Amino acid sequence: METNGQANGLKSRKKENGDGKDNLWSAILEEVQNQGNTKLPSNKNVLVLGDNETGKTTLIAKLQGVEDPKKGSALEYAYIDVRDEYRDDHTRLSVWVLDGDPGHTNLLKFALNEETFPHTLVIFTVAMTTPWGILDQLQSWASALGDHIDKLNFTAEQRLESKKAQTQKWLRYTEPGDELEPATSPMKRSSRNLADELAHDDDDDAPLPEAVLTTNLGLDIVVVVTKTDYMSTLEKEHDYRDEHFDFMQQWIRRFCLQYGAALFYTSAKEDKNCDLLYKYLTHRIYGLPFRTPALIVEKDAVLIPAGWDSMKKISILYENMQSCKPDDYYRDVIVQPATRKSGGLREAEVCAEDEQAFLQRQLAALQAGAPAPRADSPLRAAQRTAAQLDGTKISMGGGSPGNEGVLASFFNSLLYKKTGSPGARAADASPAAAAARSDAAAELDRLTRAKRLASDC
């Protein structure tokens, strides 16, 4: 009897184990089937905010794979093609780029409203070309975004749910690269999901670390510092050192902690972190794999996913700060260089008088029988200087009437020499014009000979 009972118990345990295996495989197959039927959603959006000249349009063009970006105005729309290689699916990610003029913030209602809010990720852009304005710009745009969100018609429960979702995302962050199996493996997904369900129940009630999400807008946020290739110029021309870049980075990272944001340093010119930013956006928006850990070694290619950072990790940067303290006012350390005011030192621009206008005045003066204005005649000044040097007096208006007539003909021929000018006459074929030019040439020859004789004597 005892032997039969043991046998029945063994059969029962085997049956239970078999049922457990069947249930596990059934769950895995069901999950694979459900994921196979899941398509990438087409209602996702990215909203890009930042001052002008912070590289918003260039950044989006880089994410699109476009070489020749075209800048729009006010509220610009674009899209990024997103492809899921594992499910052989693709969709379009809508992108809204707001102009950097604060007067256009009223256009936010078209890009971020009650319907699109749950499906929107926000990017704040700042540029390394103006490092002194980075923190002010981030705080200004975050404030503008917060004011807009406060105006949306949400219930208190909806606002609380959106903030709770951001808290859970931060707490549930895990370091990529820890998995022994590919993240897309059905077995790995099932085992992680089962473990996550137990861990996430505790995460919901876990307190946030110090200084994290103290301002929770209920949105995914990514801070992108563009044009990091300019950091070498800051070192050469403005004497920036590593401690300056560390000082900037720790303030930016503290801002990211406050809003629960990720941080990317990018350079479209040198193609730094642009591909990783694309993969992170698709990971954050569509749940696609992102296996790159935080990168903080290279000062111009920093990458910090949301949920990784902490004040303890930021404090490592304090060790390199010798001439400043972490809590120093940002603009006291990162000072805007003085702009040179060249208006007062610049010499007045001298505009040359039109040649035809000058000759016309000389002709009018000669025809009127009065000497030409001396102050307005460069030719007279040159002749007077030559006469003083050589001791030779050359008259160009105070001479005989014959000389005045010759000079009048000379200036007249110069006036109408250019037939292409407006009002030009076809005087080249006129015998009178030819005679005038001949008399002028003879007079000039005579003056030249007289000058040479004076020099020889």
Q: What structural category characterises the helix and strand content?
A: alpha/beta
Tell me the number of strands: 7
Tally the helices: what do you get? Answer: 15
Helicity range: 40-55%
Mean pLDDT: 79
Low-pLDDT segments = 179-199, 392-399, 419-428
What's the assembly state of these chains? single chain
Strand order of the largest sheet: 2-3-1-4-5-6-7
Quote the distance from N terminus to C terminus.
155 Å
| Overall radius of gyration | 40 Å
Instruction: Please state roughly what percent of the residues sit in beta strands, choosing from under 5%, 5-15%, 15-25%, 25-35%, 35-45% or over 45%.
Output: 5-15%
What form results from the Cα inertia axes?
elongated
Largest sheet: 7 strands, mixed
Q: Order of helices and strands, N to C?
A: HEHEEHEHHHEHHEHEHHHHHH
